[in-house]
Amino acid sequence: MRCLLTASLVFATLAGSVYGHGRDSNSPLPRRKTLGFGPEHPHAVFNSNLHPLQTAGFVSDEPLDVAHHFVTDLLGPSVSGGASWKIRKDSYTDDNTGVTHVYIRQIVNGLEVADGDININIKDGRVLSYGNSFYNGPTPAPFSSTTAPEDLRHPQAEFCDQIPRHMPYAAPMPDGQVLLDAPSQSPVISHIAESNCAHPQLPASLTSDSSDFRPALLQFMLAATPNRELAQDITENYQKHIDDMLISDESHFAPGDEATVQFKVDNVPDAVNPAKARLAYIQLPSKLDGAMELQLVWKFEVEMQDNWYESAVTVSAPHRIISVVDWASDAPVPTPSPERKPATYKVFGWGVNDPECGERSVEKESFDGHASPAGWHAIPHEHDPSYRSVRGQEKPGFWRNTTTTWGNNVLAQENWEGLNRFVDNYRPDGGEDRVFDYRYEPNETDKEDALEEAKAYINATVTQLFYTANLVHDIYYRYGFTEVAGNFQQYNFGRGGQQNDAVITNAQDGSGFNNANFMTPPDGQNGRMRMYLWNTAIPYRDGDLEAGIVIHEFSHGLSTRLTGGPANSGCLGWGESGGMGEGWGDFLATTIRSNRNYSDYSMGAWAANSITGIRHYKYSMDEDVNPSTYKTLDKPGYWGVHAIGEVWAEMLWVVSQGLIKKHGFSDTLFPPAPGPDGVVPRDHHFWRQDKDLLVPRHGNTLMVQLVLNGMKLQPCRPSFFDARDAIIEADRILTGGENVCLLWKGFAKRGLGFDAQVQGRTPWGGGIRTDGYAVHPDCRDEE
Ligand SMILES: *[C@@H]1O[C@H](CO)[C@@H](O)[C@H](O)[C@H]1NC(C)=O
Ligand SMILES: *[C@@H]1O[C@H](CO)[C@@H](O)[C@H](O)[C@H]1NC(C)=O
Ligand SMILES: *[C@@H]1O[C@H](CO)[C@@H](O)[C@H](O)[C@H]1NC(C)=O
Ligand SMILES: *[C@@H]1O[C@H](CO)[C@@H](O)[C@H](O)[C@H]1NC(C)=O
């Protein structure tokens, strides 16, 4: 309990001004700039709780056949002409629930509709639920590679015109702070407008050809780069930047799967790796009547130092940015060889949230034999980013035993430089016995020394990050974040999914202060977690040592990969969906630290040196302590994803306490590990025995399971309603629905009941909401 109440009062004022107002005068570095917006899909539906009769038309043992028939029926004659669809290869069957999650992408005129998604959840030959955001208007004329002459305009002029409409809300202020606010108030917009739009001369040799995507890409980079000198240079040396970009064809990319050719582009200004480009359609409300129409866009994937963007920019000039998803998510912004002896670590053990919650202890490499069959310190040579094969040299064995914080799930190191390279960065070496026991005794120093003081315990901090991140990998695995579901591992043990995507975790990352972030590209590419120091106190506080922050970050990878399928990282980009991406992390971190004696919890309180932490309120059952309801999203200050996420996390917290009241509390969230035979014991202390499915017995474990299963069921770009319905559906699938009314009751307590409503939602999360306190009509008898 100490850790809840003793956050230093001495610094509370400082923390209040630092975090309460999002101002960070101490930070020597600007905060990350991030963009996230896109069109709303008013026609999108998530239909859970289908009546069996609705879907009984075709029953088959083969889920893909069922999906095929269902989609054909669903779309009926509305899909005609140039329209078709494909079943994506990242569809999979969940081992425990037996639900097959099928992801379908719409294709029109041979091109993908980037936001035309159907997800179907199938079990026992039946469709349980589905989400659908397919375009259902008339098929446009096929793409032609010429643009009408009147469309020819210089991208720069276009950019300047479009600024107010297409640069929404998150942008750094000159002094480094980020404002999360309505579009018109974004200061970077006026900055760019002033600096870049004051040069009206256009290059004489201007031509425009819509089959050349370089102007569109450059236009995007102009908006995306946080570097003002570069932005200036792009506008002044426009043609040179265009000419420098080298395009190569990547047609080998997933043969037969991609609907279109993908290009690779080198020398994109501010990109750290070659960018990717492909043609696609995206849905936009028409200017005439608001009905959806298809717009031809270039879809770009651009990896930058601090962002990893997926964007859609119109093909025809004037190039407009239609949508942007940053696969990087910030945390707190207010601011094998199993026979080997287990490694040991001197760390804050699992459940000790931060240095104010307990002492460090020596913990064993407690890998879960099911989640990490080779332990945490082994990696196949073939999948080892540090392995450089030397021609002619004898091939080593398959596995490499490591003695550092380098393994199949987590690649942990310092990153003081703040750059993208990581392989040769420093990481502690525990020796043959892998004993990671290091000093952590930061002393009071002058501010000038604070950074050096923190660097002096880098061994301890990388050890802690490695330990926490591996445990998070293992626990999420056990609740269903497996290889086929898109988890993060270099090697997948032949269990499906895409590999070579362990999480790169950077401790004391030099690219920022007082924050943390996580980048989630699609399955098969490494996730990247960057943990920062917090200069909120002397000695500095190290985010790596606050488990809640690490868990929150890792959870971005979880929710992004589970929502809309492993290969689609664009489902939690902005608005309510983006907000819930934050909220799940807070909820899971809070659940992991909680114990059977109920208590309220804050997020990031230690790192931020503030009792209330980095959110508006503590997570609490008490409405006086945390008054958040659905309607809260309408308030000023609730545009940004973190504020939205806080409301969602509070709802989940309230719902979970209802389950705990009914089913009790399990002291461990870890299911029993499998025995030497690989068989997981059906331990009745952890699971209930009366079902075919593994149903967690207690309220807290059941809630974690329902939350993860809900992520798999919900559609791409879910609303609060969709995510709520998916959790309720998850209970129907797992328990036969015995908690459905309790779940409704929990959501209704915070205004997300059956009669909750929203009108006029905007892409960045606005709209007018009405709290609804009613449960589903089927539950009213129970009250
Ligand atoms: C890794 O360690 C295990 C257990 O000590 C040993 O059996 C195995 O041979 C080692 N592998 C390599 C490649 O050294
Ligand atoms: C902090 O001070 C103690 C006692 O003077 C000293 O032993 C220790 O090395 C210092 N810690 C660091 C990281 O310099
Ligand atoms: C980290 O540990 C290694 C090996 O035990 C030691 O040589 C090194 O000095 C330590 N680094 C720091 C910064 O304490
Ligand atoms: C919960 O509270 C009881 C009674 O105060 C105490 O004995 C027990 O150790 C506490 N449990 C935990 C996990 O904190």
UniProtKB/TrEMBL annotation:
InterPro entries registered for this protein in UniProt: FTP_domain, Fungal_virulence_M36, Peptidase_M36, Peptidase_M4/M1_CTD_sf
GO molecular function, one term: zinc ion binding
Keywords assigned: Hydrolase, Metal-binding, Metalloprotease, Protease, Secreted, Signal, Zinc, Zymogen
Name of the protein: Extracellular metalloproteinase
Broad enzyme group: hydrolase
UniProt-listed GO biological process terms: proteolysis
Domain FTP intervals: 89-134
A GO CC annotation given for this chain: extracellular space
Source organism per UniProt: Agaricus bisporus var. burnettii (strain JB137-S8 / ATCC MYA-4627 / FGSC 10392)
Localization (cell): Secreted
Coiled coil residues, start to end: none
Cofactor note: Binds 1 zinc ion per subunit.
Family to which this protein belongs: Belongs to the peptidase M36 family.
PANTHER family assigned: EXTRACELLULAR METALLOPROTEINASE MEP
Signal peptide positions on this chain: 1-20
Superkingdom of origin: Eukaryota
Cofactor(s) required for function per UniProt: Zn(2+)
One Pfam match: Peptidase_M36
EC number assigned by the record: 3.4.24.-
Catalytic residues identified in the record: 553
Entry binding sites for Zn(2+): 330, 552, 556, 582
